Amino acid sequence: MQDTVATEPGSTEPSEFFASADETNSLYHLSGVVAWKKSEKFLLGGGLDIVIASRRLTQIITGGYDDGQRGTFDRSFNQSVAGGGLQMKAGMQWAPIEEVRIGWSVATPSYLVYLDNEITATQSLSPPPSVPPAPPVSPDFRGTQIDDLSGAWAGVETGLTRLGAAYLRPWGWVEADVIVHFPLQTPELGIDRKTTADVRIGGIFRITDRLKLGGGFFTDFSPEREPSEFADSKLNFYGFTLGVDFANRFEPPEGGEDGFYLAFAAAFRYSHGSGTLAGIEFPSTFPNPASQPGQLNFIGIKINEFGINLAVKAAF
């Protein structure tokens, strides 16, 4: 996000300010799983994931007072963190009767076993000239640079458990899931998340042998606590999905059977989010004694998100 403010020279308001924040987080999982079919009604499974995580953050704040003659402020913060680690998973599925499936799974937090941390932070302050006979005040400058590769045991993804139930019939199926995310605190990565619970409700309905319609409702609550730094946010989402699946025949050809199978699926997704964003509020005059001229300003925001998913499957 970014915003600029400018006023006429001589005004008691800030003459110019600019605040910007840009953050990218990536997580990659390489998974291996095993499963055991204990009976026709009971299955067990487990897995181990190799996790690769990275984070890039850029933050820029500038300033200027009274047309730039009585003060300035510059701050730049760049961070690049990467690491690798592990996550373990386990689950079970039970079919008490032919039409019902009940599933439960649990996953540990993803823990990084090493961290490659690169940080460059600079800050400068130029206080307004002192009024004689007081001695002049020297500008303030601070700089920090960190380039460190170290072992760690740092949680990057919360642990979770999931409980779901499905009802299957010739006309299709319906399902409901509850997902609980556990709290996680990792100070070295700035992670402080609380317990959250989300729901998923949906189903697929067979209109003909070749046409199916689907729909569902979901929540996506933020595990973040109240924003504590510039550009932090706390957003809760609600949404739904509607889709269609069409195929040229009932099922793909089996081994040795002639024929061509083509299936096409499209889904529309909408979600609405609302919550709080931490912006920056600047004072109208340069602070004395000099300090960072800016404090968190919490504002309410709303987001409407639209998405389309497409899939094609062919077999012959």
Topology diagram in text:
Layout: E1 2-6, E2 16-37, E3 42-62, E4 72-94, E5 100-107, E6 110-126, E7 140-157, E8 160-169, E9 172-181, E10 184-186, E11 191-193, E12 196-206, E13 211-220, E14 233-247, E15 261-281, E16 295-315
Antiparallel strand pairs: 1-2, 2-3, 3-4, 4-5, 4-6, 5-8, 6-7, 8-9, 9-12, 10-11, 12-13, 13-14, 14-15, 15-16
Give an overview in words.
- The chain is mostly beta strands.
- The chain has one domain.
- 0% of the residues lie in helices and 69% in strands.
- It is built from no helices and 16 strands.
- Strands 1, 2, 3, 4, 5, 6, 7, 8, 9, 12, 13, 14, 15 and 16 form a 14-stranded antiparallel sheet that branches.
- A hairpin with a 2-residue loop joins strand 8 and strand 9.
- The chain is elongated.
- The two termini are 50 Å apart.
Largest sheet: 14 strands, antiparallel
Number of domains: 1
Low-confidence stretches: none
Strand-residue proportion: over 45%
Q: Tell me, what's the shape? A: elongated
The total count of strands amounts to 16
Mean pLDDT: 86
Distance between the termini: 50 Å
Radius of gyration of CA atoms, rounded to a whole number: 27 Å
Q: Total helix count?
A: 0
| Helix percentage range | under 10%
What pattern of helices and strands is seen along the backbone? EEEEEEEEEEEEEEEE
Structural class: mainly beta
Tell me briefly what this model is.
The protein is 0% helix and 69% strand. The protein has 316 residues and is mainly beta. The model has no long low-confidence stretch (mean pLDDT 86).
What tags apply to this protein structure?
14-stranded antiparallel beta sheet; mainly beta; two-stranded antiparallel ribbon; 316 residues
